[in-house]
Amino acid sequence: MLDFSNTSLNKIIIHRVGNKSLDEGYKLSDKTIDLQHQPDLAQILTGFFLKPFEQVPFYNFYHVTNIELNEVYTIADKLFSNPKGFVKDTKELGRILYEYSVHPKIKNGELYITYFKNCLFDNKEVDAIGIFKSENKDTFLKLEFDGSDYQVGYEDGVNINKLDKGCIILNTQKENGYVVAMVDNISRGAEAQYWKDEFLKLRPSNDNYHSTQHYLDACKNFVTTQLEQEYEVNKTDKISYLNKTVDYFKKNEAFDEDEFLETVFEDKEVIKSFTKYKEEYLLDTGIELEDSFEISGSAVKKQARVFKSVLKLDKNFHVYIHGDKSLIEKGYDAKVGKNYYKIYFDEEN
Questions:
Q1: Same structural domain, 246 and 124
Q2: What local confidence, expressed as pLDDT, does residue 37 receive?
Q3: Within this chain, do residues 171 and 225 fall inside the same structural domain, yes or no?
Q4: Residue ranges of the alpha helices (H) in 71-171?
């Protein structure tokens, strides 16, 4: 859907933004980096910025009352309309980011703002604005050979293989809040909110990636939290439901809700319970989901990591259950006063 094979880096400016709660301030540049006479640098920076976005979900800018009140959306709109105001508008982005950098765990760092040409989205060439921030530094060795011996030194710098956080705003679907790709590879917990939710103010696009992701989330939450409140289920039952859920999404290219429910949950009462749970889940989260959509393989791969298929028995055993739950049987041995599992199999590998 997103292709950068012919994309060129047209402009770049670098600002520095600190943590406002620590009164670190910000430093805003007055001019862009000269790329015309540094084609190798332009190529390196293009790879650094764009490589993490080859397979990512898409978002849209939004605001609870009026999209025009979303500051980053408004500035992006100005940049697309009048690229000549690039320096002035990017300075404003630096000031805005500083206002939201108040969590004590937010690190100061360089803010790179770029303008790209020839991004291919849905087979259509569009311009794009990139907003990136590097917060971590790596140590690099400097090796110099003076003709007879090596001299070793070091420098701290930005690792071009590790983009900390960033977004790419594509000049398409303005009426929906533009199409925005986003990554955040370092923030966790409350400090992660400032980039996506507070500074950019993004919400998931209604696309196949998010449809797949949200449906898998709803299934996982239902099986792990709600199911045992209504029915007698053990851990093997839960694992079986989770395995069948992931298996369905891995084996099918398109999602059909009726087929999915019959395949995974089978029992009419359980299906009824899940349907009610899903409706409440969507209402609470404000998410909209269709009954059918194309399944996103990248979303399945990412979500499958959190679907646990491991049965943990005290601290002695971990049993990985990947298939037919009827081949594992639970019991209780009164003589030794312990629970047990009996496992049936054909071959030992």
A1: no
A2: 86
A3: no
A4: 71-81, 86-100
Tokens 């997103």 belong to which residue?
A: 2
For residue 4, give the DSSP letter: -
Helix ranges (DSSP H) in the chain: 39-50, 71-81, 86-100, 193, 208-221, 227-230, 235-251, 257-264, 268-285, 297-304
- Collect all residues with Cβ–Cβ distance below 8 Å to 228 and sequence separation of at least 6: 238
The tally of domains found in the chain comes to: 2
Q: In residues, how long is the chain?
A: 349
Question: SS3 for 152?
Answer: strand
Instruction: Return the CA Rg of the chain.
Output: 25
- Look at 248 and 286; give whichever has higher pLDDT: 248
Residues 216 and 320 in one domain: yes
Its domain, for residue 158, covers: 2-205
Residue 323: is its pLDDT beyond 70? no
Residue 268 located in a structural domain: yes
Whole-number Cα distances in Å, 104 to 22, 100, 108, 136: 7, 11, 11, 15
Question: What sign has the CA pseudo-torsion 3, 5, 11, 16?
Answer: positive
CB proximity list for 335: less than 8 A, separation 6 or greater: none
User: Per DSSP, what are the bridge partners of residue 12?
Assistant: 114
Q: Find the range with the poorest average confidence among 13-17, 35-39, 53-57.
A: 53-57
pLDDT of residue 338: 76
- SS3 category, 82: coil
User: How far apart, in whole angstroms, are the C-alpha atoms of residue 124 and residue 139?
Assistant: 40
CA atoms lying within 13 Å on the CB side of residue 322:
2
CB 246 within 8 A of CB 304: yes
C-alpha span between 248 and 269 (Å, rounded): 20
Query: Which of residues 168, 189, 205 is at a domain's end?
Result: 205
Residue 73: closest CA among 180, 218, 230: 180
